[in-house]
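Hi W., the TZP complex you wanted:
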Amino acid sequence: MVDFSLYAITGENFHPGRDLVEVMEEAILGGADIVQFRDKTSSKAEMLHKAKALRVLTRKYGIPYIVNDDVELALEVDADGIHLGQGDMPIEEARRRVGGKIIGISTHALEEARLAEQQGADYIGAGPVYATKTKADAVSPVGLSYITEVAENISIPFVAIGGIKLSNVDEVIRAGARRVCAISEIVGSDDVTGTCRAFIEKLKSEGMRE
Ligand code: TZP
Ligand code: MG
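Structure:
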């Protein structure tokens, strides 16, 4: 079973002029223990180049590496898994394509979470907890109540996502999350490693409540 605490996702617009691999390495050094390549703007060739570079990085640190949306790219770079949206390839079809690799899927309501679990997802994303500008087509925030609902009803690992910052993560953890994900707060930070360390500290100190 895949498990992790701090899920770091790439965000192409948050670190202008900085090398993607360096930024993600800083996140890993701070305690991020799963990495997702998510890129909505690069060309296919750039995507492949970046996805391969992150594969090398995540292998160096022995942590799971997930590619967003694109099953073919995930297979091509031998990622450990794929992350699907509700509008992407159905889980059963993805499972046929990726075999035993990790399949994650974003969920916004308990019915989606239950279906994901039934269909064999390895983990789910739960969110957006708060409003976020990072995802252009994000649905309305689902709030902390969804986190509690998922914590109480779903057995596979779930990760809270969407607008999560150091300033609000305590209440996300108290609502029932023991894994969190942040894009802008991590990769947009002037101190990526320190930000991740601070997330990990909070997860450790609050995390025993579950
Ligand atoms: N899925 C739901 S919200 C979101 C994604 C990819 C964006 C999260 O980004 P941020 O910057 O942590 O709000
Ligand atoms: Mg998607």
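Strands lie at 6-9, 34-37, 65-68, 81-84, 102-107, 123-126, 158-160, 180-182.

W.
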